Amino acid sequence: xxxxMTVRKTVLAALFLAIGLILPFIxxxxxxxxxxxxxxxxxxxxxxxxxxxxxxxxxxxITPLLRSVTxxxxxxxxxxxxMAFELATYGLVSGILSGKMKKDMRSLYISLIISMLxxxxxxxxxxxxxxxxxGSGFTWxxxxxxxxxxxxxxxxxxxxxxxxxxxxxxxxxxxxxAYEGK
Length: 182
Fold this sequence. Notes:
By secondary structure, this protein is an all-alpha fold. Helices cover 80% and strands 0% of the residues.
C-alpha cells in the first residue's frame, strides 16, 4: 500500500510539473496579461496542498528551472533561479500548513496567504543575493513592484482559485489532504 501511495504521489507530482510547464504558454497568448497571472504558481500550490510539502518543494524548485532550460523562459539568471526558490517555498509551506491546519475554507485562505507571503519574501531575499552577485542592485522598489504590484492579477486569481479547487477536491474525496494520506 505504501508503494502504491508513493507511485500515485509521484505520478500526480509529474502531472503538476507538466501543468506548470504548459500553463504559461496558455496565459501568454496575451503577453501583457500573461506575465501578471503567475501561471506556474497555481500547480505548485496545488501540489503542496494535495501531495504535501516535500512534493511541493521539489515540483516548485524544478518547474522554473526546467522551463528555462527547455523553453528559454523564464531566463535562467536572474529570473528562473529566483523563481525556483520562491515556488519551492510556496510548495513546501502550503504542504506543511495544510498538514497542521483544519480542512476548511478559512484555514485554506490563511495557509495560502502565509505561503504566498513566505514565497515572496524568499524571492526577494534570493533576488537581492543573485543581483548582488551579478553586480546590480536589487531595490525595495523592485521588490514591491516585482513581488506584489505587478503580480496583483495572479495573486487575486490564486486567492480565488486555489482554495476553491482544493476544497472541492477534498470534499469530493477525489484526493485526500496531504496530512490524511500519511
